[in-house]
Structure formats: structure tokens, C-alpha cells
From TrEMBL, chains A, B:
<dbReference type="GO" id="GO:0009086">
    <property type="term" value="P:methionine biosynthetic process"/>
</dbReference>
<keyword id="KW-0520">NAD</keyword>
<dbReference type="Pfam" id="PF00742">
    <property type="entry name" value="Homoserine_dh"/>
</dbReference>
<dbReference type="InterPro" id="IPR036291">
    <property type="entry name" value="NAD(P)-bd_dom_sf"/>
</dbReference>
<dbReference type="GO" id="GO:0004412">
    <property type="term" value="F:homoserine dehydrogenase activity"/>
</dbReference>
<dbReference type="InterPro" id="IPR005106">
    <property type="entry name" value="Asp/hSer_DH_NAD-bd"/>
</dbReference>
<dbReference type="GO" id="GO:0050661">
    <property type="term" value="F:NADP binding"/>
</dbReference>
<comment type="pathway">
    <text>Amino-acid biosynthesis; L-threonine biosynthesis; L-threonine from L-aspartate: step 3/5.</text>
</comment>
<keyword id="KW-0028">Amino-acid biosynthesis</keyword>
<keyword id="KW-0521">NADP</keyword>
<feature type="binding site">
    <location>
        <begin position="11"/>
        <end position="18"/>
    </location>
    <ligand>
        <name>NADP(+)</name>
    </ligand>
</feature>
<dbReference type="GO" id="GO:0046872">
    <property type="term" value="F:metal ion binding"/>
</dbReference>
<protein>
    <recommendedName>
        <fullName>Homoserine dehydrogenase</fullName>
        <ecNumber>1.1.1.3</ecNumber>
    </recommendedName>
</protein>
<dbReference type="InterPro" id="IPR016204">
    <property type="entry name" value="HDH"/>
</dbReference>
<keyword id="KW-0479">Metal-binding</keyword>
<keyword id="KW-0560">Oxidoreductase</keyword>
<dbReference type="InterPro" id="IPR001342">
    <property type="entry name" value="HDH_cat"/>
</dbReference>
Length: 429, 429
């Protein structure tokens, strides 16, 4: 074993960073054995240097992150700051000064992954980011290495623990969205401003990363269709139960049947209770992968939190350090397939539509005609009347999102349709 | 991209081998893009050369496997023969003649993994074997790479699809063991001689491999305690249901609480219906991993079959080819922890014991005294009498297997105990 240590610079020392530093200390011997050389924490860049950080030598702490990544003796930079800047600039500078990078930054990878990979490659360095998607769950490595000889057709996952906690709570207690969100906030599962989670921004960044790796093509955050889950109601859960389903916020990346294009989307959807994703409880994450040869695989585990995310960071750190000792690099960006990312209109799936209609003869015929005119075939209809008003629940066969949108637009124009109470996609069948 | 192809020799062309060859042809462009060079099937060693093999150039087929691995121009040998010899000799010869090896051979790895790793290392070559455990499910790579910075404490899994199919059938239909086995055989899930599966030999080989990788130590097939599932009865399933459990054949690898030793075992066990492994149906496999930082992870997918196993082989093939182009090797054997493998007697778990007893006063007191004398604490007792005979179902708190064995031995000597109907461990709580 080499005795000269590999030097690691840590950018950010919050929940994840402090746990990375802690494990680097407590598991130092194990890490050294697995890498083939000791690793040493050579510097920690923080915003608030005065904060006491247990177990971290204050002499290592600096507010000058740029100077730290420019030092030239750093082997690996671990970036756990998050956000676009200054993370992007620091990672670029790190590559330019000879370091490899381990990052947990989904937003940055989803927006600028290609450019960062290009800088890494130019300088012959590694860029690893297992922790950016689904916390501790090994997902990036299985997709880009274990399934490297296979052809992935679909990735379907619960990749945001906050929203899964809220939806699980609504499902199990009958609570409304706000009530469940309040509980998630009180328990620390949701942040004070929950927008990134509940509006699906976080999941969309992860979907972009997963789609790119799964299909060997470039998918950026802006390519991902996104709908949040704030509109999901207790009534939707009751409808889902009647169909033998539950509701999850899903990230769905699909290869089109002809193989020439892909789609990536995040939205709430009904899935059958028999689907393995339906039983993913609380803040857990799980990702279903369908491929030509392997068939259906699922990866399950904690999707967030300091320790789980640190586990993923450290796995990458070991790999990058080993590569460095070997004078080699791991697999870089694989985007050779260069597929088109199609718009949401081309996605084909099933729909559950709940309409408030006038309770009089001929309404169903009118509604059915509108579906037929837009080429959307109806699977089941359930009608329920009360006090001159009625509700009509329509479940369709598979149709394109564009056809469905056209149908809904036309339905809204019918005099007999008082309103469209909800539209939800049905997945996982 | 390099244009000179990497040469692959295939040893064995059965269900898995023919699928590997097929995918190498149909996905040739994808594989080349992912590796950075084309791969070429340079030879296929078989036992019956006259058999027609669709898609394989007959000129590549040979019965002289030794000559093939000695050719000197082979970059990677893919071994899918199975069994100890000639596979062991051929793999050794392959390393000696400069090739790296991808193997799906659980029996060989479980028996001689350390020796094979040593030869690979001596010659600076790779030995990869993702396909040896749980088919297509990425498990070896996540354990040895993704969790390389974490500390794994427990691996608990369903790693044999045949036995899971049989147990699932017994659970869902109330069928007896023989009836369920017959159906598995008729459907092709069980082999004509099902011994390796139902007696737990197959699962024990996988447990040895998983324990070794998870705990960075050497665990051989002979170190694994093994009990088959032929004794599991419909009555056991009824008892399990009363406890809110089902029965699975589990491979369980554990680090002792003091960290200094490990255990590995395969046996049928009751697990709560709420445990994610309880809902693994049919011939699927799933492995639960518990670690310090990541927490609880689960990996799920098809555990056998030509295509899934080929997917795992090809993932390894891509990695080994990439290493070769880089002039590097991947992680080799990691056995630095050199932990003791403790015997089954030291395993601590809970037990469900069903006794046939005389239906007269004082029996329960006698039985309870025997448990107490052996230091096994009772959680619940259920007594049911009929026609002068009674059955007594005892569920214990956690106790060592040695204490439990002593208890059972003493119970058998009691005049009032007519027989011990079943003993089953309770796991996953």
C-alpha cells in the first residue's frame, strides 16, 4: 500500500459534508485498505468559518474555496455545496488544476453535465455523482456500468422523499395536501420553502440525469416535462383506491417504441397497488428499470439525509481515488446515441379524468363523442349523480398526451361539462 | 475510438452463452461505443460441436477449450460452463496467457475465489463475476464499489428463484411442498434434479460470495450453514400467517455486534409480511443490504434465466474491456478485514417452535422450565388441545442457535412432549 496520502478538498460542510468528513476520520483504515492508500482531508471550504465543526481541525477550514481548489496538490474535490454557482466555477477550476471531482449536485449536473464532463475529459479527470440521484441508492453506477451491455427502455421512479412522505400520508390517513405537507414540515421532511420538492423541480433534475445515463444521450433539466403535486386531493386518492391504485410523484424516462427518441417527465400518477413502487413508504426512494436483457430491476433505499448521501459520496471517492492510483479514469459521459428528446405531447399513456357534469340525459353520449373525435379510446366510465349535478370518471386506453389535451380542451367547451375536477395519468401497468 | 477489436473467447454456449453471443452481435455498435473499441467473438468452446447454434459462425466453434484460452490473442475469456472443473483450470490458464475473465460461476467462486483472485492479480488481470449472484441484479458492483466507503452489517436476501417460486406457490395456494415442486418442474422453474436449489446449495454458494464482498473478508462455501426447504409444510405456512408472516428461503450474512466476526447461513425463515422481501413473488430475487451510513437498501430483479444473466455478463465485459484499454484493472479481491467466520451456534435470532404434547395439566410449566433452564426467553405461547393431544406453539425472544438447540434436545426428552413438529427461525424484524 502507498503510504503518501491522497488529498481531498471538501467544498461545503453542512449535513452531508460534515458526515463525509466524519466517516473519512472514523473509517480511515477501511478507506485506506479499499483504496490502496490513505486519504487525508486537506481543506474544508465553508461560508461561516466561525461555526464549530466537531471532529474537523479548524486549521483546515477556509472561506476561500477558489484558493483551495487551485492549490494544485488536491487529488479529489468533493462538492456538496449544491446550486449552480459557485459550484460550477469551482468544479471547472478543480479540473483545470488537476483534481478529480465527486459531486452530489443534481441541479448543476442536470443543467450543465455535458459541459462539466467535457472539462473533466479534457484534463483526464473523473467526474462522479452517485449522490446526486436518490441518495444512497446505487443507481448511477448500475446504470452506467452494470447495465452497460444491455439496452434500457424505461426508468420509472420515486426520486423525491419529501413528496413521497406527503403522498403516503395522504394515502394512509385520508389527509388533504396541506395537512400532510404541514406534518412533513413539522417532522423535518419538508423544507420551510417546499417549492423545489412539491413542484417537482428536484425530481426533474434527477430525471434528466437518469435519462441521460440510461439512454446514452443528453437530457437537460429543461427537456423534462414537470407537474407538481400540490393539486392532488383526498378525492383523487379515493378515486385511485376504487381503481386498486395509489398516487405517487413519478419520474418517468422512456425510449419511444421506434427507439429514435426519448421522453422524460415528472408528474403525479396513479399506479396499481400490485406494482412494487406502490409499497414504497415514507421518505424512501425506489427506481424501477426495464431493459431488454435484464428485464425489470428495482433499486430501493433512503433517498436523502446526511448519512445516506455521504455513503454515496464516499463510494465515489473510493472509486475516484483508485482510478487516480491506477493513472486511469472511469467511464465518462456516454452520449453517443444522441437521441431526440420528444415533447410531452408525444408521450403515450393512460388517463383518469374526473368531470363535473350536468345530471341530464345525453351527457355521457356528448362526452364520449368528444373522446372519440380526438382518437382517445375509453376503457371505463363511472357516473354518479347528486342534486342535478353528476360526476363522470373516465379511464382511457393508451393515448398520446397531445390527444388527451385536445380532448380536455374540447370537453371544457361543452355546456354540460361544469368543470374538469382532475386529470391524472395511470402508469406502471 | 480504437478500430482494432478486443477479442472475446466464450467458454460454454448453453442458455446463457448463446444469449451473450447473440447480444454481442445485435448490440455490437452500442458495445463498441460504450467500450471505446469494437469487441469480436474470437472463439466458442462447446462440448457438442455438431449442435446448430443460430447466429454463431461455425468456424469459431471448438471443443478444445484449453487451446482457445492459450491462444494468446484473447483479451477476455467469458466462462459460462459452471461447476468446478474444467472451469477452474481454464480460468487459471486464461490468466496465465494474458486474458481477463468474466465468470458466472457461483460454485467455483464460492469454493476457490481467493485462489482465482490471486492468479488474476499475479498476472495483472481482472476477474469479474456479477452474474454469479442473483442474475441480472447489480449486486456485486454496488457492494464492492458503491458501498466501498460504507460499512455493511447485514445482507439478507432471496437469492434462489426456484425455491422462491415453490414457497410463493405454497403461500398463495396452500399447496404442500411436493405439489408446488411438481408445478415448478412442469413450468421449467425447477430442474429434473432439484437438489442444488431446494437443499440450499445454490443459495449457500451465493451467500459465501456476498458475505466475502460485503465484509471484506474470506467466506467459503463450507463456512456457510445450510438447511434446505423440503421440510417446510402447509402447516408451517398456516402458523406463519397467524403471526403475520410468510416463509422464505433466506441467505443471511451478518457481522457480529462486536464487529470481530461474521456468520453466513441459508435456511427457511419466517419474515413479517411488512418486510419488503415478503412481497417478492415467483422466481424473482431480492437482496436487502444494511449498512452504517446508507441504511437499508434493496435490490430486486430476475435472479436467473439466459437473458438476465447475459445482461450481467455483458456489463462485466464492458467494464473489463474498458479497463484493458486503459491498461488498468478494477478492484480485485478485498479481504483485508480477515474476520473469523463463526459457527451457526453463535447466530442470534428468534424462533417459532411447534410441539406436539400430551393434553394434561402441567405440560406448559414443564416446557417453560426447559426454555428457562437454557436461557431462552419466551415471547408468546399458543396452546391448542384436541383428543388428549395438544399442540404448543412457542415464539421466543432473541437467543443463540446453540441455546435453542440445547432447548430442543431437552424438550425431546420430556415424556409429555410427543414430538417437535417444526422449528423455524424468525427474521427481518
Amino acid at each position: 500500500m502507498r503510504t503518501r496520502p491522497l488529498k481531498v478538498a471538501l467544498l461545503g460542510c453542512g449535513v452531508v459534508g460534515s458526515e463525509v468528513a466524519r466517516i473519512m476520520t472514523t473509517h480511515a483504515d477501511d478507506l485506506a485498505a479499499r483504496i490502496g492508500a490513505p486519504v487525508e482531508l486537506a481543506g474544508v471550504a465553508v461560508r461561516r468559518p466561525s461555526k464549530v465543526r466537531e471532529g474537523i481541525d479548524p486549521a483546515l477550514v477556509t472561506t476561500d474555496a477558489t484558493a483551495l481548489v487551485k492549490r494544485g496538490d488536491i487529488d479529489v474535490v468533493v462538492e456538496v455545496i449544491g446550486g449552480i454557482e459557485p459550484a460550477r466555477g469551482l468544479i471547472t477550476t478543480a479540473f483545470q488544476h488537476g483534481a478529480s471531482v465527486v459531486s452530489a449536485n443534481k441541479a448543476l449536473l442536470a443543467q450543465d453535465g455535458a459541459a462539466l464532463h467535457a472539462v473533466a475529459e479534457e484534463h483526464g479527470r473523473d467526474l462522479y455523482y452517485e449522490a446526486a440521484v436518490a441518495g444512497a441508492i446505487p443507481l448511477i453506477r448500475p446504470l452506467r456500468e452494470s447495465l452497460a451491455g444491455d439496452k434500457v427502455n424505461r426508468v420509472l421512479g420515486i426520486v423525491n422523499g419529501t413528496t413521497n412522505f406527503i403522498l403516503d400520508k395522504m394515502d394512509s390517513t385520508g389527509a388533504g395536501y396541506q395537512e400532510a405537507l404541514d406534518e412533513a414540515t413539522a417532522l423535518g421532511y419538508a423544507e420551510a420553502d417546499p417549492t423545489a420538492d412539491v413542484e417537482g423541480f428536484d425530481a426533474a433534475a434527477k430525471a434528466a440525469i437518469l435519462a441521460g445515463i440510461a439512454f446514452h444521450t443528453r437530457v437537460r433539466f429543461d427537456d423534462v416535462y414537470r407537474e407538481g403535486m400540490a393539486e392532488v386531493t383526498a378525492a383523487d386518492f379515493r378515486s385511485a383506491k376504487e381503481m386498486g391504485c395509489t398516487i405517487k410523484l413519478l419520474a418517468i424516462c422512456e425510449r419511444a417504441a421506434d427507439g429514435g427518441s426519448v421522453t422524460a417527465r415528472v408528474h403525479p400518477a396513479m399506479i396499481p397497488l400490485s406494482h412494487p413502487l406502490a409499497s414504497v413508504r415514507g421518505a424512501y426512494n425506489a427506481v424501477f428499470v426495464e431493459s431488454d436483457a435484464a428485464g425489470q430491476l428495482m433499486f430501493y433505499g433512503p433517498g436523502a439525509g446526511g448519512s445516506p448521501t455521504a455513503s454515496a459520496v464516499l463510494g465515489d471517492l473510493v472509486a475516484v481515488c483508485r482510478n487516480r492510483l491506477n493513472g486511469a479514469t472511469g467511464p465518462g459521459e456516454s452520449a453517443y446515441a444522441a437521441l431526440t428528446v420528444s415533447s410531452m405531447g408525444e408521450v403515450v399513456t393512460r388517463y383518469h379524468i374526473s368531470l363535473d357534469v350536468a345530471d341530464k340525459p345525453g351527457v355521457l353520449a356528448q362526452v364520449a363523442t368528444v373522446f372519440a373525435e380526438h382518437g382517445v379510446s375509453i376503457d371505463t366510465v363511472r357516473q354518479q349523480g347528486k342534486d342535478g349535478e353528476a360526476s363522470l370518471v373516465v379511464v382511457t386506453h393508451r393515448a398520446s398526451d397531445a390527444s388527451l389535451s385536445g380532448t380536455v380542451e374540447a370537453l371544457r367547451k361543452l355546456d354540460t361539462v361544469r368543470g374538469v375536477a382532475s386529470i391524472m395519468r395511470v402508469e406502471g401497468e
